[in-house]
Amino acid sequence: MHVIDERLVQWAAHASRPQLRAGPTVDDLGGIDAVISASEHLAQGPFLHHLIQVTAHQLDALGDESCQPLYEGVLSGIRENSNHAAFASATDALTHHPALASALGHPLTRSLLSRLREALDADDDLAVALIGVEAADCLVQLTLAGITSAARLLGTMDEATEDLDALPEAMAIRLPRLLGVLDAHHPGAGLRGALERCLMLDHTCRDAAFELALGDLRQALEQNQYAPMVEQLRKTQNRLAELITLDPDRLDAHLYHTAIEAVLGLSAPDAPTRVRTAASALREVLHRYRSWRYRTHTPAWAKTRQNDVIAWSELTVVLDGAAAYLDQDDPWYAGGQSILTALLRAYTAHNTVTVLKSPTAAAAAETLVAPIIEDAFLQVEHRQRFLQHALTHDEEIRDDPAAQQLHAALLHRTKTNGCPSGQQADDQGKVRRWHQLAHQLKDDFAVFVDQTPDHLLDRLELSLRTHDDVLNNISDPKYGRLRARILRELEKSRDWIPGIADEFTALVETTIRFSYLCYDIGRKMGGSYTEYLRSRDKDGKKQKVDEALFHQHYREVLQFSALFGVVNSEVIDKAGGRVDILASFGAVQFNVECKIEEDNASETALREYVSQATEYQNTNAGFAILLALDKTVASEGAVNLFDSIWVESVLRPGEKEPCLVVIFRIPGGRENPNTLHPHPI
Fold first, then answer.
1. Largest Cα–Cα separation, the chain
2. Which bin fits 664, alpha (ψ -120 to 50), beta or left (φ > 0)?
3. Is the pLDDT at 54 greater than 90, yes or no?
4. What is the SS3 assignment for 92?
5. Which pTM value belongs to this model?
6. Residue 583 β-bridge partners
7. How crowded is residue 528: how many other Cβ atoms within 10 Å of its Cβ?
8. How far apart are CA 635 and CA 675, in angstroms?
């Protein structure tokens, strides 16, 4: 055993718990000369973090000059130590000693970036990959602390996601959270694209979806008007709902989803019930979340997130207390001061929930919550007298700034809305109470509200919200992810314009559903149209399959969809050839080519067919579809649906803009899945 190791053992045997956490000093290990002589041994061994702690204590005690001999040992360990556990402990120690990290300066940043880049080419070397992601975590924390510049880290992190399949799973799985943290602090750096790439892999998609949802939430809170803020929050909630469907035990997604439900439910006609249900669900999930987080290691960057979760939970409790008195039928005869106290706490929620004191969060509370409280007073006249009486006779309420602020706002809105009855429907209070109706009716909303009794408007609004809830509950997150990926690639074309985009989207979505149908049809299902999907008929003879049977089934599926009136097959004299399926949306037409591949159905091989599909679009929008029946599956089984749909960009000689062809690979001639065996990896 090295002499320095013996001294560490002796020190650890007699050190107190606080001393163990702080680490040894130079004197604990025999003096500065002993530590310097052993610095290389410490740097390359399992005790690198103790070298960092010793150096940090020396820096605090005697300043930068006395530490120069130790700096090289620390940097050497960061550059070369190959023990993952030792490196992880070392980077953790660095984040707890920001003064030392700052003193090490650019050499430290370069060394950490070097370890991260090495991990991108780690292949099967798990230790190198894990060291790289520890370096990334450390750089994120140092960047957030203002110790290192973010520019090079942002570029390297974006580069790391360009080929996620090449990264070891243990490394890739930690990248989405780090990308999300960086995106929160550097929203213009383009890291959302990196997060979206992470959606493509099963082991990264959940964290990536959550980080994208938080990004949507930040965008929502940056809105300064009620309607766009609610619309963006609803998008956030939909993304969280998809994630919860994919991973029901995802507690942080549940917490944000229920908190947003409470905020949105505050303006609903059934606000007392909706907010109470959300608050009850949130309390249960928060209890489980705290139990899960109990005594677990929390990186510095994650602490603000936990505070944010608690803040949203506190906000929900505040809204629950106020929502009980928002019902128009609630007479407020009892309760007195407690009613006003609950409403005033919600009215100034940005002050009550301390973590939400940032300018955007304060504006969010003022935009989403405060006007709802004002509406509760304006909808029933005696409630305003209720507040006025309290301000006059109740000393506590009279001196409450929130009560005074609310009273002034009510007076202002009363004067502002004191206009002819024909303009009353423009009152934002009505848009808030029936915002689903407002979203559906748009310009007709004001007239419709004037002509329809409130109780009918409430019923319509609740029906729309219930319908929206049902759609959220039955959403398929993997379908949503697939659809979003395809549309993102199609949107890059200059032909993605009104009159083309929606029409081609409808055709693509129907074809995706056709793919689902083909993948799920059983051995004895589907009838004669689907014989091409099976390998043998009931007599055990070789099954004859041709393109006509294949595209006839596809045509039948289209005919029973919303596209039944725009589909034609075997269209001749189209660009000198014959189109298998042609979908005509007025002047805009899209062709669908159906091919059978019996030798090689790989992505590379199927590219050979895309030029024919693009030829038929020479005089129309640059979009087409290629359906390829894969007859090569045999005993290996079929590639999953989500890896069998992709977009090919086809740019032929003389053309300036590529045609985008969506390829759908359909498994045909499948054997009995009971006979499948795993393919060697």
1. 95
2. beta
3. yes
4. helix
5. 0.71
6. 567, 590
7. 9
8. 7
DSSP letter (8 states) at residue 561? S
The token pair that represents 194 in the structure block: 């990196």
496-506 residues labelled b (16+ CB within 10 A) or e (exposed): beeebbebbbb
Per-residue pLDDT tens over the stretch 183-220 = 988 888 888 889 988 988 888 999 999 999 999 988 88
CB 131 within 8 A of CB 86: no
Among 213, 218, 171, 161, which residue's Cα sits nearest to residue 191? Answer: 161
* 497-513: pLDDT as tens digits: 989 999 999 999 999 98
Does residue 460 sit in helix, strand or coil?
helix
Q: For the range 434-443, what are the long-range contacts, defined as Cβ-Cβ under 8 Å and sequence gap of 24 or more?
A: 434/269, 434/458, 434/460, 434/461, 435/226, 435/227, 435/230, 435/267, 435/461, 436/461, 436/464, 436/465, 436/468, 437/461, 437/464, 438/227, 439/227, 439/231, 440/464
- Rounded CA-CA distance 207/199 in Å is 9
Sort strands 623-630 and 659-667 into parallel, antiparallel or unpaired.
parallel
Segment holding 388, helix H or strand E: helix 381-393
32, 66 contact by CB (below 8 A): yes
- Residue 257 corresponds to which tokens in the numbers above? 């989803």
Across 557-574, b (16+ Cβ under 10 Å) vs e yields bbeebebeebbebebeeb
At 52, which helix (H) or strand (E)?
helix 48-62
CB 315 within 8 A of CB 349: yes
Contact 90, 49 (CB under 8 A): yes
Strands annotated E in 170-299:
none
Please, which residues bridge with residue 596 across strands? 629
Q: From CA 348, how far away is CA 401, in angstroms rounded?
A: 10
The answer to whether the CB of 584 falls within 8 A of the CB of 568 is yes
Residue 379: DSSP 8-state: S
Cα torsion 14, 16, 20, 25: sign: negative
- The pLDDT of residue 91 is 94
For residue range 653-678, list pLDDT tens digits in order.
888 889 999 999 988 877 666 565 55
Instruction: Check if the beta carbon of residue 242 is closer than 8 Å to that of residue 212.
Output: no
CB 116 within 8 A of CB 156: yes
Contact yes or no for 615/650 (Cβ under 8 A): no
What letter would DSSP give residue 609? G
